[in-house]
Amino acid sequence: MELNVVDLSRLQFAMTAMYHFLFVPLTIGLSILLATMETVYVMTGREIWKRMVKFWGTLFGINFVLGVATGLTMEFQFGMNWAYFSQYVGDVFGAPLAIEGLMAFFLEATFVGLFFFGWDRLTKRQHLAATWAVAFGTNFSALWILIANGWMQHPVGAEFNPDTMRMEVTSFYEVLFNPVAQAKFVHTVSAGYVTAAMFMIGISAWYMLQGRHLQIAKRSMAIASAFGFASALSVVVLGDESGYEANLNQKMKLATIEAMWHTEPAPAAFNVVALPDMETRENIFAIEVPYVMGLIATRSLDTEIPGITELVERSNDRIRQGAIAWNSLQKIRENPAEASEELRETFRQNADSLGYAYLLLPYTDNPMEATTEQVDAAAWSTVPNVWPMFYAFRIMVACGFFFILLTAVFFYYSSAGRLETLIEKRRWILHVAVWSIPLPWIACEMGWFVAEYGRQPWIIESMLPTTVGVSSLSVAEVLLTLVGFVALYSTLLVIEIALMIKYIKIGPEDGEKIAPNPPPSVSAPSPASAVPAE
Amino acid sequence: MVLHELIDYSTLKVIWWLLLGILLIGFAVTDGFDMGVGTLLPFIAETDIERRVVINTIGATWEGNQVWFILGGGAIFAAWPPLYAISFSGFYLAMFVVLAAMILRPVAFKYRSKRPDPNWRSSWDWALFTGSFVPALVFGVAVGNVLLGVPFRLDNELRMTYDGSFFGLFSPFTLLCGLLSVTMLVMHGAVWLVMRTTGEIAARARKAGTFAALGGILLFGVGGYLVVSGYVEGFRITSEVDPNMQANPLAKQAVVEGGAWMRNYADYPVLWLAPIMGFLGMLGTLLLLQTRLEMPIFAFSKMAVFGIIATVGVSMFPFILPSSVQPEASLTVWDASSTHRTLFNMLVAVVIFLPIILVYTAWVYKVLWGKIDEETIERDNHTAY
After folding, report:
1. E strand spans, B100-157
2. Residue A471 and residue B158: Cα distance in Å, rounded?
3. Given CA atoms A129, A135, A140, A145 in this order, what sign does their dihedral have?
4. Which one of A185, A257, A472, B16 has the fewest beta carbons within 10 angstroms of its own beta carbon?
5. Angle at CA B345, nearest 5°, toward B339 and B346?
6. Spans of all domains in chain A
7. What is the pLDDT of residues B257-297, one digit of tens each?
8. CB atoms within 10 A of CB B14
């Protein structure tokens, strides 16, 4: 395979984003859980809750720094690797990123120092306020980045200006209250809550299996399972809302998730398992459940969902329309001052489809002269690879339902005060929880994949193809930095996991040597106390 | 009446030029001493406990300080999209080096003391050094390149091509700027250590700060001479420019011209205050470092950072990124900004949030204030880095 700058830049962005997204969901969820636990501490005054905050806070810190470190790259990568995209959409896309810094990053980054260093310098309430500030900061950060991302999925409140060669804001309000962005925000944030809850449940279950730190493990289990159960329910419900929004705005994404090659009579069936074939453009094999798809995507029994082939046909028309826009744009650009009103009017009428003309550029230099075959090929290039979409989505959904089940079980046992039963009789459930720790990460990455890979070939849905957004770089440059980032990130990830495991093994007592005089209520001394202090 | 029209487009452009200046100076003043401290770390502190003292002077606040950098990036993206696009893709490998170095920093802070192994700790100390020294150097080199003009071209669709190379970034003048940046931040970091530590470390910091201030004065002087003498040429717009124009960097004419970076000083002599503050700041720091004073030195050190960065800004105004190969494609305040509406909306966000940020940041510093010595570290062994 020949390497090109676009593919390498995509790979690099995907890699850095997916690494970043290994740390972010846990940060989002754990920050809220820490603040909740600390609230209990302040309200009840019981030291054990403080020790819980400190223990989980240590793990939070180890994870948090890598979120910060990898986030740094994300902020600058748009300009580095996607310069034309940045220039094209900066007027709209830059604002949420800047506001993220103003409203969210400053808050979390300034107070995270107090969270770790402020225990002896602040009153209980002041420290609690600092912890909540970190939690709010993290969650606001997710809000703004998803407003930016939501706009890439559904570019509202902006239009293209031929004189400045870029998208410009027409309504800031529409950008902020973009329904896609809002749906993505609540879905992503609750996915983060589930991640943190499953992490806490899994580690607490491990302590229970070992018979260590039971006081802390049980309390953590109770709070994480309640929080996790509520979040797991909402992540599925809100994910469904995302699907509904996708149907309104990104019909191709929905069709590929379903491997639905042709429009079916409403209400459409849901493919549980399928073997899509990109060559023949049909499923070699599929197991269907009638009606379900129509209900999920349209909330009705009589609205049709367009299939892939029909959507490609629609793209055909828009490509031709886009070629007209492209042609008039060239003429306007040659002499903007003298461009006739008629020419500008032609452009305006077709401007919505300008992005589709760019799809022709890999096939011809002049979209106006494209042959039928070229238009056809360009139209089919709007279809992402179907099978990865189909299965990534199903893995995510399967995980989602499993989380509801698992958190419900633990919620039941802890609220009924029967966690002892698990320890004594049903240890296999605890084992399941331990082995499930990686699952939320898999689900999150799959969700990210469906959202972003499913947007291809667009970097801005229907407006700008990914291939056009790239920077003028050489293959060698991008390859070098790609290898550099992979090496650096992988090394840091290995170190991070090793430290996590080390501190989980040490456990709450010696986690950060938090309790100067350990309260007597704690379970029997663990072997961990032999571990040398920092 | 549309809300954003309350403020003139051209006025907004200038306001954003000032705001971005404030952000960059905010970054250099706050994260600047963190970088200075990080650069000094391996040389100023020898034993593990000494290093922990040095690290903990910045341990609790460096993270908030670094947000100035992130915010600077975001604000440039929002206010001057072409600058964001062209500079970061043009300086691609340099940016990668900066990012790779800066990624090491958070991790080094957090992970260093998580294991007692001396090799482990020493590796992270060098990571901290790298994460501090390399960005300080590269930022200065980048500013030097901006002053000289960057070899980029724009085509009719504003797509950028870059004629330069990574090694092309380094010339005698740009290296001088890089060194000035390092000495400035080392001086600033040394002053910070004087304030926050005691005994041996503080004494060594005074010495390091003295050398850095001397070096800074020398380098700033030589750099200034190279610009005044015309060795470093400047840029000048030769066509009529409407400050209220829509963004379009290709709509003007510009030339490279010896002495052009001095024109603003001739037109507005008050601007001489910027370089004067740079010199006075460094001189004041140098002199006060020889006394027992602490807090006032920091004021001078901040003034130096402010003056040096402001000097670059006012020399170049209205240019923000000149092109050495296609001067008419240079980005200026007038023709490279976002729309009237975006600038206004963003200004509203800044007016609301920046004061809040300043208040809570000040409060956090107040809470965490105090000398850090070996006793503090031993007492707070469980929370200190």
Report:
1. 152-154
2. 12
3. positive
4. A472
5. 90
6. 20-253+383-472, 317-380
7. 888 999 999 999 999 999 999 999 999 999 999 998 888 99
8. 16
Q: What is the pLDDT of residue A247?
A: 65
Cβ proximity of B105 and B131 under 8 Å: yes
SS3 content of chain A, % helix, strand, coil (to 5): 70, 5, 20
The Cα of B200 is separated from the nearest Cα of chain A by a number of Å equal to: 24
State the best of A472, A491, A492 to mutate against chain B, taking most chain B CBs within 10 Å: A472
Q: How far apart are CA A505 and CA A530, in angstroms?
A: 12
Number of domains in chain B: 1
A 323-382 residues with CB < 8 A to B:
333-334, 336
CB contact under 8 A, B338 and A499: no
Q: Is B16 a member of any domain?
A: no
Q: Of the ranges A332-341, B245-254, B313-322, which is most confident?
A: B313-322
Whether residue B53 is contained in a domain is answered as yes
**How far apart are the CA of B175 and the nearest CA of chain A, in angstroms?**
23
Within A119-244, strands assigned E span 158-161, 166-169
| Nearest-angstrom CA–CA distance, B364 and B59 | 13
Residues A49 and A40 sit within 8 Å (Cβ to Cβ)? yes
* Cβ count near B6 (within 10 Å): 9
Interval B149-189: pLDDT, tens: 999 999 988 899 998 888 889 999 999 999 999 999 999 99
- Tokens 């404030």 correspond to B22
Q: Is B85 in the A-facing interface, judged by CB distances under 8 Å?
A: yes
Residue whose C-alpha is closest to residue A324's, from A305, A307, A309, A344: A344
DSSP state of B369: -
β-strand pairing of A158-161 with B254-258: unpaired
The residue segments making up the domain with residue B349 are: 33-380
Cα A68 from chain centre: 16
What mean pLDDT, rounded, does chain B reach? 92
Q: What angle do CA B67, B72, B73 make, to 5 degrees?
A: 100
Q: Is the pTM of this model over 0.80?
A: yes
- Cis ω for the linkage preceding A440 (within 30 of 0): no
Cis peptide preceding A155, ω within 30 of 0 = no
CA A38 – CA A124 distance, rounded (Å): 9
Residue-wise pLDDT for B17-62, tens only, equals 999 999 999 999 999 999 999 999 999 998 988 999 999 999 889 9
Interface residue A92 vs chain B (CB under 8 A): yes
Distance CA A10, CA A85 (A): 13
Cβ-defined contact of A86 to B248 (cutoff 8 Å): no
Rounded alpha-carbon distances, angstroms, from residue B59 to A116, A179, A396, A530, B365:
10, 40, 39, 28, 12
Single-letter code of the amino acid located at A266: A
A83-120 residue pLDDT tens: 999 999 999 999 999 999 999 999 999 999 999 998 88
Asked if A493 has any chain B CB less than 8 Å from its own CB, the reply is no
CB contact under 8 A, A73 and B103: yes
Assess whether the previous peptide bond of B172 is cis (omega < 30° from 0).
no
What is the three-state SS of A168-183? EECCHHHHHCCHHHHH
Residues A269 and A243 sit within 8 Å (Cβ to Cβ): no
How far is the C-alpha of B214 from the C-alpha of B179, rounded, in Å?
12
Work out the angle at residue A127's Cα, subtended by the Cα atoms of residues A122 and A130, and round it to the nearest 5 degrees. Answer: 125
Q: Do B100 and A488 touch (CB under 8 A)?
A: yes
Token representation of residue B249: 């960097």
> Tokens 């293209």 correspond to what residue?
A160
Residue B107 lies in a domain: yes
Q: Residue A353's Cα: distance from chain center in Å?
A: 28
Residues within 8 A of B (CB atoms), A 154-193 only: 161, 163-166, 168-170, 172
List the one residue out of A265, A260, A245 whose CA is nearest residue A386.
Answer: A260
Contact of A398 with chain B, judged by CB distance below 8 Å, is answered with no
